[in-house]
Amino acid sequence: MASIRLQLVFLAPFLALLFSSGALGAAAETTNGTAGAMGGSSLAAAQSGVFSLDSYGARGDGSHDDAPALARAWKAACASPLPAVVLVPGGKRYLLSNVVKLPGPCKSASVTLTVQGTLVASPNRADWSDRDRRHWVVFRAVDGLTVNGGGVIDGNGEAWWKNSCKINKALPCKEAPTALSFHYCSSLRVQDLKIVNSQQIHMSIEDCSNVQVAGLSITAPGTSPNTDGIHITRSNDVQVTNCNIKTGDDCISIENGTHNLHVSKVVCGPGHGISIGSLGDDGSRAEVSGITIDSVQLHGTSNGARIKTYQGGSGYARDITFQNMIMGSVKNPIIIDQNYCDNAKPCREQGSAVEVSNVVFRNIRGTTITKDAIKLSCSKNAPCHGITLQNIDLKMEGGNGAAESTCQNARWKKAGTVLPQPCTSQN
Ligand SMILES: *[C@@H]1O[C@H](CO)[C@@H](O)[C@H](O)[C@H]1NC(C)=O
Ligand SMILES: *[C@@H]1O[C@H](CO)[C@@H](O)[C@H](O)[C@H]1NC(C)=O
């Protein structure tokens, strides 16, 4: 690193000394320099708490691997006792060739990654080792983390999609990276970013608490496999607002261990819609509660508001509200499926189920492209209960006949809604 920097930058001798001691981050914060040109400005920047990738040896030419530079800038920022910003400068493309781990805990109560330019993944799948094919950029155990900046995180996923077993059935099913992962983070803000063409899931929030996600644009082709927009699991107190998500899989997937999640002002489609589950696979326990999906639009998605659980599981999915939704050309606008099965052979009937209760669907209007506007396919042994359908107005696209609803084992009440028949109300 020292030699690269010395070639690139005109540096005052004392600065060269700091680099050779390998203590740039810590030293820069406590030393006042008046070195010339870039040396001086990067030093001043580090003093003000900004750790630019360009000061840590990044090229930003889209072809050299800048992952080591990002890791160094992160390390320095994370060791800073003052609020620190790792800056990805605008107007350039920084290649991060495979998994980049950005671990905490950090010294300061606040660390920010500001992406103004583009972080781009290697298009070459061989750059990932079999040891960890599931991740690209991973933050772990960082408190007070903000990721923002208006720039782009580009998973360059085309090669992964082509080689997915969902696209080419002859190939074995293998894992592909999630573009942006947050593990064990608290007080997390992710704001004002474009995440595009992820290899698989675009953003995953796991084991986090106190999370605000806002102003994201997430885009991948509708045909790209498994490219969920935002995936949330084992996390509490999460808000997602003002996002635009167009992908090939779930817009937002809400998995086991999510409690107190509020999603609002999100526009989805194409993709698979908003999904809670699948829960309870392989007889597992699931716990999901306190989910509000409010003011969401879905356009051309395969599902709208969906809860899906396998037979044979246990636990619960409860206190869930889907409200103020607009659906355009959605295949299955409202669906609870306690008999979900995506195996090649039919899943056998089982006695137990994840309990689905206190679910409200309210103020939902728009169009469906199949007759199934509302489908409540609940468990025979553990029927879903406390289901409220209120003010639902779903019509067949283009006026092609009446929309329908089907219900099995569902205890639901209608509150001021005229349902497409033939579901009969039970409590
Ligand atoms: C660096 O400069 C700041 C502000 O100009 C000053 O408060 C601080 O004492 C200086 N530190 C050193 C080590 O000279
Ligand atoms: C789901 O979460 C619950 C509660 O945290 C846990 O007991 C269970 O093992 C989890 N299930 C799976 C499949 O991870």
TrEMBL record:
GO terms for biological process: anther dehiscence; carbohydrate metabolic process; cell wall modification involved in abscission; fruit dehiscence. One of its GO terms (molecular function) is polygalacturonase activity. The active site is at H272. It is found in: Secreted, Cell wall. Its main location: secreted. It catalyses: (1,4-alpha-D-galacturonosyl)n+m + H2O = (1,4-alpha-D-galacturonosyl)n + (1,4-alpha-D-galacturonosyl)m. PROSITE patterns: POLYGALACTURONASE. Keywords: Cell wall, Cell wall biogenesis/degradation, Glycosidase, Hydrolase, Secreted, Signal. Residues 1-28 form the signal peptide. Its EC number is 3.2.1.15. InterPro entries: Glyco_hydro_28 (IPR000743), PbH1 (IPR006626), Pectin_lyas_fold (IPR012334), Pectin_lyase_fold/virulence (IPR011050). Belongs to the glycosyl hydrolase 28 family. This is endo-polygalacturonase.
